[in-house]
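__Protein archive entry__

___
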Amino acid sequence: MPDLKNLTTITSQALEAGEFATDFPEYYALKTVTENSLWHDHQVVFDHVQAVLRAFETEQYVQGLSEGQLAKVTAYLAQKLESHSRLELVQLCVLCHDLAKTQTLIQHPDGRANCPGHELVGAARVSELGPRFGLTARETDHLERLVRYHGLISEFVTRVIDTDQPAENWHLFAETVGELSLDLTVMMLCDLAGSDLARTDAAQFQAQRTILQTYLQEQADAI
C-alpha cells in the first residue's frame, strides 16, 4: 500500500496514478499552476516536479562521475541523519521544493509567469509536512534547509558563468549552506533535467549542467 512514511512507495508512477491524492494533496494542487519562462515553457508545475523525480529515480545526477567518485557520492548520500538517509531527504526535497508555487505565482502582462519567493514560502511549510513523512525534528530541519536553499545554487551557477570565478563562488556558496552543498548539487542536477531549458536554450543548459557536474566531481574528490 502507498505510504508517505515508506519512501520506496512514493514513485513518479504512483504519483502519476494519483495514489497519494488523499495523503499529499499539496502535490496534486501543482496541476493548477503553469509557469512560463526560460526554464519553464508553459510548463505545468506538476509535470515539472514529476520530471525532476524521474531524473532522481534514474540517477541522472551521477553522469560524469568516475567510478571512484560515484562510490564516494553513493556512500555519502547513504549516510543517515537519524532514521532517514541524505538521499531519502533529497528525494523529499524533490517532492516538496515547488509546493509553494501555488501561493506565489505571478502572471506578467507580457505572458511570463513565475513564482518568486517560492523557496522561502515552501521552506516554511516543511514543518507541517515532516511528520507526515515520518521525519524526526532534526530531519525536518534538514529538509527545510534543502527546500530553502534549492534555488540559491542556481543563482551561484549563474554567478560562475557571469564572473568566470568558480572557486570563489563555490566557496561562498559552501559557506552559506554548510554540509548541504553536495546534497543541493544533486538536487539541482535533477531540477535542471526536469526543466525546459535544454529546449529553450540548449547552450545555457549545457553550460549549467557542466558546471554542476564539475562541482559534484570536486566535492566527491574532497570526501
In short: The mean pLDDT is 96. The two ends are 38 Å apart (CA to CA).
